[in-house]
């Protein structure tokens, strides 16, 4: 292939990766019009199909695959998935045609690798749709989601490596790495592992920053300034949603590891107030308004062989297995650690385990001996939110039920996934 054609393809896909979709389409149209009659074969066919990639990518970053499907009897499927499937078919046909015509090897290679790219996009569309659907359920199955995104990454690790496709390969890789780090951070948080959770969140942050940096190279953005510029040149919906997901996870991290983090700063309140959700402040406000003895999170380390306790632990440090009450450490508590109530709390956690595991109810338990009520719900499979009162409370106290239910649900982060579709508006 001539240098001109390779330069054109490199520029086209760079514009697509930087979200300059209209410019990319204009480049393809101009190149098609200026091509010599002798280039009307495979090269001309490639130029004809390229604008469709720009259109599909534009819709993809705006989460167009979550829009209602316009499909029915005698009606063409206009979904984004079908758009990528159509492009994949076109590039397969182009590859076959180029082979028969003994065309330049680069055209054959690029066509083949664009088939791979379309396949990766289709698989990612399925992945986002699954996350959205799962967000409407009781519990996010992060293990399943992580396995799916890992499979996509492994499958396409060596896909579309041609130099002219470097920019779109880099963007897709960053997107997958962000998702992988964020999902893995949740698995680590569920197991109350501080350093591992922190490293995964940091990994997501660095890749989000890198992706944002490539987007900020957009020529159309360089002309704008001030508030008007920010309103009319917003980041795409997909990127904004990933930012929201990271923010939700960081807020959760700040509560699960509040005690550890508070040891590193004199003003934890200032840091948590800047988060999307200040869970600790919510706990404080509820406790004060309702005169609760304590509001706390309790971790269940029962049968966890690698449990080492909160905070950072050297990987070579030998940890002794925990037993009995040590299996239920207090993660965070306000205003005090109710150590004298822990036996009762653990008893309720074990006796009402089936009710709690349903993830759709708040458990009330009154101790006549202690004249105390324990209200609890699961935030994660091993993490429980517990509220203690020194008087009898029941399910009729809806403000208590609502707080515990809503707080535990919010900490599961389902809503961020369920709101994926709202991000398309």
Automatic annotation (TrEMBL):
Protein's UniProt keywords contain Membrane: yes
Record key words, sorted: Lysosome, Membrane
Localization per Swiss-Prot or TrEMBL: Lysosome membrane
GO terms (BP aspect): cellular response to amino acid starvation; cellular response to glucose starvation; negative regulation of TORC1 signaling; protein localization to lysosome
InterPro entries, per database record: C12orf66-like_central_sf, KICS_2
Listed transmembrane segments: none
A GO CC term assigned to this protein in UniProt: lysosomal membrane
Pfam families listed in its UniProt record: C12orf66_like (PF09404)
Family: Belongs to the KICS2 family.
Record-given protein name: KICSTOR subunit 2
Organism of origin: Timema genevievae
């Amino acid at each position: 292939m001539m240098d001109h054609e390779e330069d054109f393809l490199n520029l086209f896909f760079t514009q697509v990766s930087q979200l300059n979709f209209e410019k990319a389409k204009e480049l393809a149209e101009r190149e098609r019009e200026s091509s010599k009659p002798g280039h009307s074969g495979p090269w001309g066919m490639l130029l004809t199909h390229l604008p469709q990639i720009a259109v599909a990518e534009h819709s993809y970053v705006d989460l167009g695959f979550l829009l209602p499907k316009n499909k029915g009897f005698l009606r063409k499927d206009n979904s984004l998935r079908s758009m990528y499937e159509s492009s994949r078919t076109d590039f397969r046909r182009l590859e076959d045609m180029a082979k028969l015509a003994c065309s330049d090897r680069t055209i054959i290679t690029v066509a083949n690798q664009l088939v791979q790219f379309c396949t990766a996009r289709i698989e990612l569309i399925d992945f986002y749709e699954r996350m959205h659907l799962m967000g409407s359920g009781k519990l996010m199955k992060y293990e399943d989601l992580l396995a799916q995104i890992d499979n996509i990454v492994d499958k396409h690790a060596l896909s579309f490596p041609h130099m002219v496709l470097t920019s779109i390969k880099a963007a897709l890789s960053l997107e997958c790495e962000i998702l992988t780090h964020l999902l893995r951070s949740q698995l680590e948080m569920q197991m109350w592992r501080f350093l591992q959770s922190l490293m995964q969140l940091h990994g997501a942050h660095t890749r989000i920053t890198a992706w944002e940096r490539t987007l900020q190279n957009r020529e159309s953005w360089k002309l704008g300034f001030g508030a008007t510029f920010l309103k009319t040149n917003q980041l795409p919906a997909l990127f904004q949603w990933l930012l929201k997901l990271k923010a939700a996870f960081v807020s959760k991290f700040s509560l699960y590891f509040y005690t550890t983090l508070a040891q590193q700063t004199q003003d934890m309140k200032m840091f948590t107030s800047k988060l999307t959700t200040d869970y600790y402040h919510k706990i404080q406000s509820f406790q004060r308004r309702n005169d609760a003895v304590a509001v706390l999170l309790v971790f269940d380390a029962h049968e966890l062989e690698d449990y080492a306790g909160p905070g950072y632990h050297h990987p070579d440090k030998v940890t002794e297995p925990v037993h009995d009450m040590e299996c239920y450490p207090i993660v965070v508590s306000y205003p005090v650690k109710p150590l004298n109530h822990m036996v009762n709390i653990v008893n309720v956690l074990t006796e009402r385990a089936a009710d709690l595991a349903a993830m759709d109810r708040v458990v009330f338990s009154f101790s006549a001996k202690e004249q105390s009520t324990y209200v609890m719900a699961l935030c994660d499979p091993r993490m429980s939110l517990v509220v203690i009162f020194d008087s009898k409370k029941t399910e009729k106290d809806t403000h208590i039920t609502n707080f515990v239910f809503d707080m535990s649900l919010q900490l599961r982060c389902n809503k961020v996934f369920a709101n994926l579709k709202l991000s398309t508006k």
